[in-house]
Write a structure and sequence with these properties.
single chain, 414 residues, alpha/beta, Aminopeptidase, Alpha-Beta Plaits, eight-stranded mixed beta sheet, four-stranded antiparallel beta sheet, 9 helices, 16 strands, 33% helix, 23% strand
């Protein structure tokens, strides 16, 4: 979705880093190209190559992660020719992968050209925003106006548990980093605005796979065997209730099932059943307890119905917990560019985000980047084939990141 006539934003005071009109147009074209060529996690070779080429054209030296996709790129460095120690780096993070769903948008020229693949979570916008901020900051660095080193992190595989953030960290993405910031598209927030929150802003998200086995038998004689379908049904209905009663309700720990399969005939008790779902949790401490609680509850139900259970609890991501000082940095940066009215409070989401793995190591914060066209009715939700973003959000995101880098650097240089 595009607005050909965007509202102009003039940075107040002497804060540099406004997005030039010619770069704005280039970034929109870059985002549309990514949108037309979505790539799944750990397959983002074309995206990685496009980013590398553009950053090198700006005189930067991006480094592709040793896993083959994703890259990091440093801007600025030691002052005075390296005679003083390097100050902590501010990292700007983007995720570059797409989703395995079809693009169902109509009436746009940049619809996905790859069957059953779509940038339906806005990662193309995140990527373009960090690229644009990097290009603006690189120009400021050449002019001697960047007071603090910045690192661009283009991370693969955010949609793949436990998330490509762990790969980026292992490849040194956080080496020397003092703070990290990111954005996530929010179709409930108007383009031109951001949403912020101190503390948890997303949920933890894990994956659960359960197999139940028994000897099978005839439905006329369930007492002589393991009634596996009933056992599976009891796991589905009773495990969430058991878990909810064994932890503080304020933690928001929820077990939700998405798949159950058992049997092939109406008069045959099957020998095997499979269930899968997710565990979501609002509280970091409760998330750490979740595996033991869930294992215990499933085992109790399985034992009661004489079913043999096999549980595969796949750790996903912890909640994204925004550090207050960095959250305030984003608030100040947005206010400097667009005024205090451009920032709104946001609620904690039950969605998962692997940006949380960075925050396990360094302080940081994530903002919700508004992508809804002002006045638009209805909401095109994330992870839906018709999702699109008002491209004015690209300008806003670039302004947010560049202002944050300048304000953070000036503050720490005092």
């Amino acid at each position: 979705m595009s607005r050909e006539s965007e509202s102009e934003s003039v940075p107040p005071g002497d804060l540099p880093g406004a997005l030039p009109e010619e770069l704005r147009a280039e970034l929109v074209a870059f985002r549309r190209d990514l949108h037309m060529h979505p790539e799944l996690g750990h397959q983002e070779f074309r995206t990685t190559a496009a980013l590398k080429a553009r950053l090198e054209a700006a005189g930067l030296k991006p480094r592709v992660l040793r896993i083959g996709t994703g890259l990091i790129c440093d801007i600025g460095g030691t002052p005075d020719g390296g005679t003083r120690p390097v100050r902590p780096v501010l990292a700007l993070r983007a995720d570059i992968d797409a989703l395995p769903i079809p693009d169902t948008k109509t009436g746009v020229s940049y619809r996905s050209t790859v069957p059953d693949r779509a940038h339906a979570c806005g990662h193309d916008v995140h990527t373009t925003v960090v690229l644009g901020a990097g290009l603006v900051l690189a120009d400021l660095a050449k002019q001697g106006l960047l007071p603090h080193p910045v690192r661009l992190i283009f991370q693969p595989a955010e949609e793949v548990l436990p998330g490509g953030a762990t790969d980026a960290i292992e490849c040194g993405a956080l080496d020397g980093v003092g703070r990290i910031i990111g954005v996530h598209c929010d179709p409930r927030v108007d383009a031109g605005r951001i949403g912020l929150r101190h503390g948890p802003i997303t949920s933890a998200c894990d994956r659960l796979e359960v197999s139940l086995d028994g000897p099978g038998g005839h439905t006329a004689r369930p007492h002589l065997t393991t009634d596996l379908v009933t056992a599976a049904a009891k796991v589905v209905t009773e495990v969430p209730a058991l878990v909810a009663r064994r932890i503080d309700a304020r933690s928001g720990l929820a077990v939700t099932w998405g798949r159950i399969e058992a049997g092939h005939a109406c008069n045959v008790i099957p020998q095997h059943a499979e269930l899968s779902g997710t565990i979501r949790c609002l509280d970091l401490a409760a998330w750490r307890q979740a595996p033991d609680l869930v294992h215990g509850a499933i085992q109790e139900i399985a034992d009661l119905y004489r079913a043999k259970s096999e549980i595969n609890y796949v750790r996903g991501v912890p909640p994204v917990v925004n550090e207050p000082e960095v959250t305030d940095l984003l608030r100040d940066a947005m206010a400097a560019r667009r005024g205090h009215a451009s920032v709104e409070d946001t609620e904690q989401s039950l969605g998962g985000e692997d940006f949380s793995w960075y925050l396990e190591r360094v302080p940081g914060a994530m903002a919700r980047l508004g992508v809804r066209t002002p006045g638009e009715r209805g909401i095109r939700d994330l992870h839906q084939g018709d999702f699109d973003a008002d491209e004015h959000a690209i300008t806003v995101g670039v302004e947010l990141f560049t202002a944050a880098a300048l304000i953070d650097g000036a503050t720490r240089s005092v």
